Amino acid sequence: MIDARLLVIGGGQMGRAMVGGMLAGEVIESDGVIVSDPNIDARAWWRSHLPSVTVVERFDEAIGDADVVLLAVKPNVILEVARQPDGFWDDRLVISIAAGVALDPLTDAIGHQRVVRVMPNTPGLVGAGASAYCCGDEVDDDDRNVIEAMLGAIGMVVPVAESQMDAVTGLSGSGPAYVYVAIEALADGGVHAGLPRTLALKLATQTVLGAAKMVAETQRHPADLKDAVASPGGTTIAGLRALEQNGLRSALIEAVTAAAERSRQLGRG
Predict the structure, then answer these.
(1) CA atoms within 13 A on the CB side of 5
(2) Strand 68-71 to strand 93-96: parallel, antiparallel, or no bridges (unpaired)?
(3) SS3 readout for the chain
(4) I need a labelling partner for 126 at 20 to 30 A (CA). Which of 24, 39, 111, 245 fits?
């Protein structure tokens, strides 16, 4: 249990995922959470789904009650939000989940180095997230424990060097979208081969889930697991040949690379 009051600035999907995970994992109590969002519909969602959480329109009205601040706003507005009067963020651990926005401009805007940059992903909504984080110079071991507890409530969490954060963004931050496309395409293939749409989607989803679980739980290299399925002259090797001919491997590599570069561009403003 985190012995701190949390202010979430931005009540969108990732804020909901992180708070929901923390509450489900009993990392924090609901009366220790304040959510700020200027959007009336966002505030209505919180009041409807998590009525025990305090919801406000303006975060400056609630900052005095917060020990930890989660900046869950878009990259194009985070520095504007961070630039507050001198002393506004003092004595508070500040966490940013804005893609591409580096620690240096964040700490300059906030006025201290007790800042953590995090890249979570949307599967955190179902407790299966993958989050990476890096820290400013004033983040201590107690702060790291808070971060590990918060992010661990929504899935896996790993510390990384800040130089790796754009690559993390391209891989695990954006990666769920690539997998959704793969699931959709597998289901389309099933339909093309003669399966009903609902059944094809169900089988495709479970197949991807099961394959990921095999990699995670056996700790075997994906290539080994692939070879175990592909018997000589069989159906799987025929399908793998079609994937290679159509550039699936290259397409995924390029997708991660393009997303990582876009993260760098966002960081450059």
Answers:
(1) 14
(2) parallel
(3) CCCCCEEEECCCHHHHHHHHHHHHCCCCCHHHEEEECCCHHHHHHHHHHCCCCEEECCHHHCHHHCCEEEECCCHHHHHHHHCCCCCCCCCCEEEECCCCCCHHHHHHHHCCCCEEEEECCHHHHHCCEEEEEEECCCCCHHHHHHHHHHHHCCEEEEECCHHHHHHHHHHHHCHHHHHHHHHHHHHHHHHHCCCCHHHHHHHHHHHHHHHHHHHHHHCCCHHHHHHHHCCCCCHHHHHHHHHHHCCHHHHHHHHHHHHHHHHHHHHCC
(4) 39
Q: Is the pLDDT higher at 168 or at 65?
A: 168
pTM: 0.91
CB 6 within 8 A of CB 33: yes
List the beta bridge partners of residue 8. Answer: 35, 70
- CB count, 10 Å around CB of 168? 24
In this structure, what token pair is assigned to residue 60? 């400056």
Instruction: Please list, residue by residue across 17-42, b when 16 or more beta carbons sit within 10 angstroms of its beta carbon and e when fewer do.
Output: bbbbbbbeeebbeeebbbbbbeeeeb
pLDDT in tens, 170-224: 999 999 999 999 999 999 999 999 999 999 999 999 999 999 999 999 999 999 9
Contact in structure between 70 and 97 (CB atoms under 8 Å): yes
**Cβ atoms of 9 and 59 closer than 8 Å:** yes
